[in-house]
Amino acid sequence: MACYTTIITTEAQKFLPPEFKRCNMSEVDHIKNVTIVGIGTQGSMIAFRNALYGKNVTGYSRTQPSIDTCKNKIDKWLAHFIEEGKLTKDEADAVRDRIHYATTLEEACKDADLVVENVPEKIEVKQAVFKQLDEVCPKHCYLNSNTSSLLMSDIYKDVSDERKAMTFSVDHDDPIRNSYLEMMWNPSTSEETKKAAIAHYHTLGFEPVITEREIKGYSINRVWRAVKRECLYLWANGYVTDVAEFDRGWMTEWHSNIGPFKLMDLIGLQTIYNIENSYYAASGDERDKPPAKLKEMIDAGHLGMKTGQGFYSGYDTEAGNLDVGKK
Length: 327
Description:
Low-confidence stretches: 1-8, 18-25
Oligomer: single chain
Radius of gyration: 19 Å
Mean pLDDT: 90
């Protein structure tokens, strides 16, 4: 078990696993100011997680409505943590006060030690954002892409060599509910960046699963992707007509509190579609092509938890992930 040393807030100490509290403090986390570029479904959760563990957070979005949506989500999560006895009201207020917002990248990144890019899973979008980040971020700032399927060595094509050495990739599941995290290096990632990345995510209560060499989809996520593709195939071709029953069987067999179809709803069906399309673009294999039936759902506005309906319906559109695992 690796260890860390950093300034940990009183409320954050509650969430650190026991093995982290027992260890000798040998790692140093120098990352204090974290900017989240894109504060939608996952970005808002990542912002919350960082603030919960004592980081100063700036959430970036170009539009005020998306900022307001993020604020509302965080308020609901804080209220839930208070209700569950995980935070006092004063502690929750302190978490909220650590989160700020900006509508320009220049403002959002001016003091950043780490930027977590969380824009849609489209290579051209991420490339454009990384080019801008390289220009506006402080020289010491690390760049991190929260991506499920794209390679950093493709994303950073317009980034300076100095900054390429300060890049890495992560893949979250649900930063509100669990501490699962995959992390992957790329051919340019420096040893210093690796140490800084691991130390930072340890202070957020994660024990990252690391993929040492760059490969599309990380390691565990590649296995999940194979499961996901097969589930979509079975559903789109009429082999599975009751996704709740399928998920029930999955949860029973694999001792999980969420099944594949509800997990896709949590991730967001547009994101699922984009990920599948990225595999199809890379392979040209028709088996990798996302089913037309999934596109029909998306075109109908059924995007999963974020819109209230996907494979399931009746979600709280601002905090539906808190209901995962409840009867």
